[in-house]
Amino acid sequence: MNGIPAIPPPVNEPIFSYAPGSPERAELQAELARQADQVVDIPLIIGGEEVRTGNTIDVVMPHDHGHVIATAHMAGPDEVRRAIDAANAAHREWSMMRWEDRVAVFLKVASLLAGPRRAKLNAATMLGQSKNAFQAEIDSACEIIDFFRFGAHFAQEIYGKQPISEPGEWNRAEYRALEGFVYAVSPFNFTAIGANLPGTPAMMGNVSVWKPSLAALLSNYYVMELFDEAGLPPGVINFVPGDPVEVTKVVMEDSSFAGIHFTGSTTVFRSFWKTIGDNIAKYRSYPRIVGETGGKDFIAVHPSADVTAVKTAIVRGAFEYQGQKCSAASRAYIPESMWGDLKGPLIEETASLSMGDVFDFSNFVNAVIDRKAFDKIKGYIEDAKASDDAEVIVGGECDDSVGYFVTPTIIVAHRPDYVTMCDEIFGPVITLYIYPDAEWEETLELVDTTSEYALTGAIFAKDRRVIRHATNALYQSAGNFYINDKPTGAVVGQQPFGGARGSGTNDKAGSMFNLLRWVSARSIKENFVSPTDYTYPFLEKD
Ligand code: NAD
């Protein structure tokens, strides 16, 4: 009690290589085989109790959709109400607990994950969300570890921000948790986001109802297990998979709803905002609304750029994790003078990307997440094949016979406003627009105005004046802006992540700015010698 603790200075978790012969590769392969051979029964977790409703869905591998790896119980309205009650019941003790005890739970999650639980969570992410070993490692191991180690450090910085005081007085700031519970709604594509959305508010003393994506249940359930293993008290985070609309309806009717921490599509976030607006008079406080949403992330290439670097950025930026990253490059602007040199090698490299299941570590690309995603992506590709305004120059094959496979696809659009230059497709598809070199200025304008999003973007150029000019011209076009690098792969502590416009509230996941959204400060003034006379000198007679 009597000490001012210091959080160990955070450093980013090193990424394991999984190279042939490495111990981590052998451990992960054994764990993949073990998990693929079982069917896990996933309960709800409410107030620390496992709850089984009997209303279950199958959890399958996207790369082998006939293979069930878990069955998960779905919450109905009664379970959601119980989860809210459990969160509210845990609120006082948790929010009043010393902050170093709270963050210790999450530092322990990080250490478990860095060591004994790493292979388990990575394997679950690979099987359930169809990620290769490297994509799982940077997500379900490294990013979660970073979120919590850096988060603990940022929490300490926030609590240390204290006001000045006059002599004889002492001013203090208390960073209270929100009064009520936080609703955490996570997407399928990053296990780390599942951990962060309820976890970061909890570090700051909040309690939550966590509705994971139905397409990421195995890994998300294991995250919940980790919270428990690290000593998180019952009720602080309640795990309630269920019909998204039904769960949300119950949550957003509740007077103690204090905030939403969301990552997912723009349409869903807008619907949340509207419902919150409609219900605003029901709530005890104005809910905090934090959402990171869609993107139509760009690569804008100047004629002075290096052609090989551009090729690599397109391939990695567009096709890693099948393009299912909010930051994935999905439109690129290529100067005519470069196209001749880029086209052949780009097609060749894209066509050579290996695709298949996650057990075979030589596969760069795996399956897209589910039938809905597969049908949507296929629809855009079929339309492009049939359109006079576009041409599919490589890829475009879709096969759902065993898993939801779509080959990495490049479309060349003949119009800069062709639909695949504007819509978020969320699959392994990038559209290129070849512009006349003389129209760089107009192209920057196109980059800025073509989509409703402003999440990530990259420019490629050698000429420094061009870099400065484009950086200014695209000032509002991306919350994460890259110069001569692909627009994906943000790292906690290095490139705080988030976008504006239709892409979200830009509260920068993995930074102190995000943590600040989950506290409500109380200013305390203490006067050591209280005044005893109400008069002031100016009242005295001349
Ligand atoms: P999604 O919007 O379909 O689902 C996200 C979450 O919302 C899930 O938990 C889902 O069950 C829930 N949901 C869906 N429809 C709902 C409804 N009508 N009412 C209540 N809840 C609902 O998104 P997804 O497919 O899981 O993820 C992909 C999307 O997420 C893309 O748009 C991507 O750009 C975005 N994303 C953004 C970021 C970012 O940081 N900006 C990061 C990852 C993903």
Which key features would you list for this structure?
542 residues, alpha/beta, Aldehyde Dehydrogenase, Chain A, domain 1, Aldehyde Dehydrogenase, Chain A, domain 2, seven-stranded mixed sheet, five-stranded parallel sheet, 23 strands, 21% strand, globular, binds nicotinamide-adenine-dinucleotide
Could you name the CATH class of the largest domain?
Answer: Alpha Beta
Helix content class: 25-40%
CATH-derived architecture of the largest domain: 3-Layer(aba) Sandwich
Mean pLDDT: 98
Strand content: 15-25%
Bound molecules: nicotinamide-adenine-dinucleotide
Class of secondary structure makeup:
alpha/beta
Q: What's the N-to-C terminus distance?
A: 56 Å
Are there runs of 5+ residues with pLDDT below 50, and where? Answer: none
Number of strands: 23
Task: Please give the domain count.
Answer: 2
The CATH superfamily name of the largest domain is Aldehyde Dehydrogenase, Chain A, domain 1
How many individual helices?
16
How does this model look, in words?
- This protein is of the alpha/beta class and 542 residues long.
- It has 2 domains: 23-293 and 504-523, Aldehyde Dehydrogenase, Chain A, domain 1 (3-Layer(aba) Sandwich), CATH 3.40.605; 297-483, 3-Layer(aba) Sandwich (Aldehyde Dehydrogenase, Chain A, domain 2).
- It has helices spanning 23-36, 77-96, 99-114, 118-129, 133-160, 191-203, 217-229, 244-252, 266-278, 307-319, 336-351, 371-386, 419-422, 440-449, 464-473, 512-516; strands spanning 40-42, 44-46, 49-51, 56-61, 64-73, 169-177, 181-185, 207-211, 237-239, 257-263, 288-292, 297-301, 329-335, 390-394, 398-399, 405-406, 409-413, 429-435, 453-454, 456-460, 480-483, 500-501, 519-527.
- The strands form 7 sheets. The chain has a 7-stranded mixed beta sheet, sandwiched between helices. It has a 5-stranded parallel beta sheet with strand order 9-8-7-10-11, with helices on both faces.
- Helix 1 crosses helix 4.
- The radius of gyration is 25 Å and the shape is globular.
- The mean pLDDT is 98.
- The site of nicotinamide-adenine-dinucleotide has 30 residues, from helix 8 and helix 9.
- Residues 185-190, 193, 211, 213-214, 244-245, 248, 263-265, 268, 271, 292-295, 326, 424, 426, 455, 497, 499, 503-504 line the site of nicotinamide-adenine-dinucleotide (NAD).
